[in-house]
Structure to design on (450 residues):
């Protein structure tokens, strides 16, 4: 696949990682693969905006070569330290020896701690600009969207925003633009990305979007560092981010459980029936059968979480422990939750779940429900009512 | 009372405002915040804050 002109004198020179299935170590499952988007801007001065993950360095360099001798690159804009975007820096710097790296102060610090290269840097701040010739780059620092070093680059004349990870999706496709792909797949991946990475940063994201809106800069195209480019409808993803960052939810519950011998699962099913019969949309997930990344995505637009686990060694099971550690980091706002689970003698899982829910800032909407060993008919009826009761609170 | 800036996300702790969402009353100096208080925006601890020099 060749370099692709995305706009006049601007080329996509990134890479498609069709088969990556685990991202950030094992924190994010990329079922549809991903792309690393790097953009080459041709003008009197030549600029490369971001690079690709290290193993794809040669691919990026080959694509650049189709357009220009990479030695001639004057500037490399590093919007973000993370290695999936900076990994090809050592390779490209070996060729483009005179290229100056343009980045935020924190990005310089981070890159130095990754690559230990004796490189020429130019630190930029919000409002700084870089004239390439006909085209001007303007920079906007975006700390914690999603790392302290993060920065957006805006092409003033072409009205193109290159916000790096913001508005991205882990979505490998042979197409490069929003109007060329399946809309369900696209928004599914955009939501999954937001849910698993950006939920804790919602208030910062809202403020940054407001800051950009106040600057009154027209945005014709958003070219993120993962997935497709928003050219037909950039407002679609901006509005989706505003909704997600405002913690808008719908009347929907997600039931997540981990079970040893099926007793907690019986409770989960009855609770789910109760929620259903109260007229609320609900999804039920066995934590050990479903990808965590997928469950978190389902929790993005849900108001209520019902979390269940059997007791093991006086506490919850280890996979639920890991799941709730993730939830504690996400700190989803404006949600409610309740706990349930079976136990043999002393219990403990439900208490552990409730503590984790509180620590994640989610409101405990009602007392937990437990059953000793295997729930009897009456206890299952109580589970059903427990679900119904919870559903009323999310109406 | 001095303001403090989070060096990670740039959030400013203003003692006049406090952090009411997390139980910190207006008028609480930064020094008196509990040791386990974290940045309400990005979640890092007090040690990541620096004093803002008033202009």
């Amino acid at each position: 696949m060749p370099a692709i002109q995305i706009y006049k004198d601007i080329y996509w020179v990134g890479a498609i990682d069709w088969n990556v299935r685990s991202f950030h170590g094992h924190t994010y499952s990329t079922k549809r693969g991903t792309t690393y988007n790097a953009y080459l801007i041709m003008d009197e001065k030549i600029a490369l905006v971001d690079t690709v993950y290290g193993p794809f360095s040669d691919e990026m360099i080959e694509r650049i070569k189709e357009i220009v001798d990479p030695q001639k690159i004057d500037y490399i804009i590093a919007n973000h330290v993370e290695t999936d975007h900076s990994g090809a820096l050592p390779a490209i710097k070996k060729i483009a020896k005179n290229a100056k790296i343009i980045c935020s102060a924190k990005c310089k610090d981070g890159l130095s701690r990754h690559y230990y290269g004796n490189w020429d840097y130019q630190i930029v701040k919000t409002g700084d600009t870089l004239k390439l010739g006909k085209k001007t780059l303007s920079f906007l620092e975006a700390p914690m969207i999603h790392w302290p070093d993060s920065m957006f680059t805006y092409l003033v004349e072409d009205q193109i925003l290159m916000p790096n990870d913001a508005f991205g999706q882990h979505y490998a496709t042979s197409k490069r633009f929003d109007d060329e792909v399946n809309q369900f797949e696209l928004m599914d991946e955009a939501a999954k990305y937001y849910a698993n990475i950006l939920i804790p940063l919602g208030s910062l994201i809202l403020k940054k979007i407001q800051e950009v809106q106040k600057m009154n800069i027209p945005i014709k195209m958003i070219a993120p560092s993962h997935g497709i480019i928003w050219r037909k409808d950039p407002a679609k993803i901006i509005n989706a981010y505003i909704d997600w960052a405002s913690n808008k939810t719908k009347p929907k519950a997600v039931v997540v459980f981990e079970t040893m011998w099926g007793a907690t699962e019986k409770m989960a099913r009855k609770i789910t029936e109760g929620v259903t019969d109260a007229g609320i949309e609900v999804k039920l997930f066995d934590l050990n059968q479903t990808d965590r990344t997928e469950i978190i995505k389902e929790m993005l637009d849900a108001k209520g979480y019902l979390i269940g686990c059997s007791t093991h060694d006086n506490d919850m099971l280890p996979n639920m422990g890991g799941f709730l550690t993730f939830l504690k980091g996400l700190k989803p706002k404006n949600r409610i939750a309740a706990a349930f689970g079976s136990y043999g003698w002393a219990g403990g899982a439900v208490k552990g779940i409730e503590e984790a829910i509180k620590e994640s800032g989610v409101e405990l909407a009602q007392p937990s429900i437990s059953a000793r060993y295997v729930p009897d008919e009456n206890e299952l009826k109580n589970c059903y009512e427990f679900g119904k009761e919870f559903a009323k609170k999310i109406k | 009372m001095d303001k403090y800036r989070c060096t990670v996300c740039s959030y400013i702790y203003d003692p006049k405002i406090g952090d009411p969402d997390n139980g910190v009353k207006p008028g609480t100096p930064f020094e008196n915040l509990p040791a386990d208080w974290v940045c309400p925006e990005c979640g890092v601890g007090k040690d990541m804050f620096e004093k803002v020099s008033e202009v």
In short: Chain A has two domains: 4-245, 253-394. Chain A is about 35% helix and 20% strand. Residues 253-394 of chain A form a domain with the Rossmann fold fold (CATH 3.40.50.360).
